[in-house]
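Subject: Interface between my chains keeps coming out wrong

I've been trying for a while to get a sensible model of this assembly. When I model each chain on its own everything looks fine, but I need the whole thing in one frame so I can look at the contacts. Pasting all components below, labels as-is. Any help appreciated, I'm running out of ideas.
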Amino acid sequence: MSERRLSIQRLTQQGFACFGDVIETDGRSHYSINAGTAERYDDLARVDVSAASGRPVLSICRAAPNAPPVRLRLMERHPLSSQAFIPLSSVPFLVVAAPAGDKLELEKISVFRSNGRQGINYRRGTWHHPLLALERVCDFLIVDRGGQGENCEEVSIADQNFLVVEP
Amino acid sequence: MSERRLSIQRLTQQGFACFGDVIETDGRSHYSINAGTAERYDDLARVDVSAASGRPVLSICRAAPNAPPVRLRLMERHPLSSQAFIPLSSVPFLVVAAPAGDKLELEKISVFRSNGRQGINYRRGTWHHPLLALERVCDFLIVDRGGQGENCEEVSIADQNFLVVEP
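Reply #2:
Try treating it as a single job with all components included. I did that and got this:
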């Protein structure tokens, strides 16, 4: 099969809206707290982890870098919860997502580049590639779900020859 | 009233255990995910936000820096939830805490310095000062609670002359 090239889009709240939330301060309102010494950008993502008696879990993911051009390997989804990744390293990274649904729609895969300050929160059931760090090993805070039930489905797409390219 | 000097301690899981969790990878176990391309340091804090039908909320706090020596101003606690702060700027900051309880015990206030990669999660009801950024404006991810009910009590300690000093 020939290569299927996917262009990288800039990550914006509008462009990512069908997949979930962009967690960032740009373009968001805030209010003053702590006697004016801090600003709070409140409630930036819909954390959806309570299905089947789930609970919120905080973890750190340390991701190895990917040398461009990146080939996509697998997509996964979490049918019982949202999943947020917030970068702790301030380094740009790639976000690969496809619409929620029982079946992954290969022709609807999109690729976004975070500016390194933007985190994302995949809506429950949204298909996504494992995060793609770029320049170096990067840490991310994960906010997802703990509890009973099978909450991860994976589909290999290594044989589909998706290649991520600059626009 | 004369100055009451508080020395800064190094932030460690053991030293902070009576106030909550230290969110960090050092000294924590992990497992491999995503076909070996990432490591997950799982479940690093006890998120306790469900009281009174509460829900987890993700926000970003942008904190102004404090020039040393820092004078303490106020302590607060959240009777209905834990509250986590994870640094997004990799810059050291100060954490000031006192044991949970209806009454703030002034003589039990402790001051810790995060190395800039360590986040913290205050256990429900733990008294704490607003985070003290040091060198420059710093962003923190907050994980706390949304929902009904009064979840913040504040006590001014500006008149107590607490001064934070190097050890």
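Reply #3:
Confirming on my end. Chain B has a mean pLDDT of 96.
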